[in-house]
Amino acid sequence: MQNTPEIWRHVDAKAPELIALADRVWDMPEPLYAEFRSAAEHVEELNRQGFRVEQGVAGIPTAIMAEAGEDGPVIAILGEYDALPSLSQEAGIAEPRAVAHHNGYGHGCGHNLLGAGAMLAATAVKDWLAARGIKGRVRYYGCPAEEGGAAKTFMVREGLFKDADIAITWHSQSFTEVAPAASLANSRVDFTFTGRASHAAAAPHLGRSALDAVELMNVGVNYMREHMDSAARIHYAYLDAGGVAPNVVQPRAKVRYSIRHPDTPGMRALLERVKKIAQGAALMTETTVKVEIISGVSNLMANTPLEEAMQQQFELLGPPEYTDADREYARAIRATLSVEDIQAAFRAAGRTYDPDMDLCDQVPPRDAPRQFMIGSTDVGDVSWVVPLVQAHGATCAVGTPLHSWQMTAQGKSGHAHAGMVHVAKVMAATAVAAIENPALIEAAKADLAKRLAGTPYDCPIPAENVPPLDMAKG
């Protein structure tokens, strides 16, 4: 196609190699901060593509920063590659079936595609710069531990983005679009209660139950839910319930809380209320409580100039192209989903519900009236220190929930590959637009400065905290 922009051709030229990387990473799912083989695969591919690679940045063994080009603006493109527990799944089928050698892990959020797709965009920009002889640098950030580990927050704290001019990233979704800049600030906090063991029948009066303290804390937090912002979210998981012997008064128990709010100051205030409840539970049970902040992320900061620029690239490219085989598999996956799953995807994209739509068929406008529930991401912290825009790539059957076996199953499908290549073209073209138009970069920086004028960035992780490299162990 003679009218196809040059940058798209660069993406197409490298697509088979990066699709192969995505599939290799799918085959070796690893949890947060333990993505050693996945990171090694990315490093090997970056070296092969001619990047200057630095490993183990920000004190994180699986974090990568790779650069190509000289002088000029610095375009950051962010990728991820961590998997999730309890989502092991065989590829290419439409029924739940775990893969034994995956140890329970699976790419149920599309991060095998995310890292490879971001690298595909970065590689295309590198090749475009070289072919044109244009000054500029493209930098690929390999970011581990997005799923609760906040690696990007630590990377921001270490100043790894301080000289970047703009940042671009993406995530898998049902529809391809400019992602709305909406996420919840989040803090993951461990509460460890210590009491006194005793015989639960012969000497219960001598014991002080740490397990009782955790349960009282949970009750207190549940009562607080009526009196907090309706958009806030609080969840918890027992890391140590004190043992398996009911005839022992449990001397130790540990619970991890995830505390979310639409903005970082609100999250901090909510965290202080939860801490007071924990202290009250300890007081009631005559135990002690230790509070440890494990990770934290800020809410996403919008950037109108970059979002408008990316929307232009989406509209120029149009939706992804899928084969009949892609649509057949997508229909099989949709048969496993509930009507509520599918309707939620349409509402989130501001689309009218169409029960017959199997894969994304158009790009929604930016001003579509979306209705969606939001989560948290460490991409938020990057957006506070460098102008950032995020795309959604249509890599799954419409309605597929993230963090599901259905998402894992589609991770190596034809439509997942098509969606990854499609969004790489949009990201690469957005980067090229910024390099060719310095005024866009200046407008993006001015937009961010205006948003930060009243609330400067304040890292949600204490300065003394180091990356929780053993977080996958609990």
Largest sheet: 7 strands, mixed
Computed Rg? 23 Å
Order of strands in the sheet with the most strands? 1-2-4-3-5-11-6
Q: How many separate helices?
A: 13
Overall mean confidence score, pLDDT: 96
**Distance N to C terminus:** 52 Å
What is the N-to-C succession of helices and strands?
A: HHEEEHEHEEEHEEHEHHHHEHHH
Question: How many strands in all?
Answer: 11
Task: Quickly give the structural class.
Answer: alpha/beta
What does this protein structure show overall?
The chain has 13 helices and eleven strands. It has helices at 6-26, 36-49, 111-132, 151-157, 210-224, 264-285, 304-317, 324-334, 339-348, 379-385, 405-409, 414-436, 438-452; strands at residues 52-55, 64-70, 74-80, 136-143, 166-173, 177-178, 185-194, 233-240, 252-261, 288-297, 388-394. It has a seven-stranded mixed β-sheet with strand order 1-2-4-3-5-11-6, sandwiched between helices. A four-stranded antiparallel β-sheet has the order 8-9-7-10. The mean pLDDT is 96.
Walk me through the topology:
Elements: H1 6-26, H2 36-49, E1 52-55, E2 64-70, E3 74-80, H3 111-132, E4 136-143, H4 151-157, E5 166-173, E6 177-178, E7 185-194, H5 210-224, E8 233-240, E9 252-261, H6 264-285, E10 288-297, H7 304-317, H8 324-334, H9 339-348, H10 379-385, E11 388-394, H11 405-409, H12 414-436, H13 438-452
Parallel strand pairs: 3-4, 3-5, 5-11
Antiparallel strand pairs: 1-2, 2-4, 6-11, 7-9, 7-10, 8-9
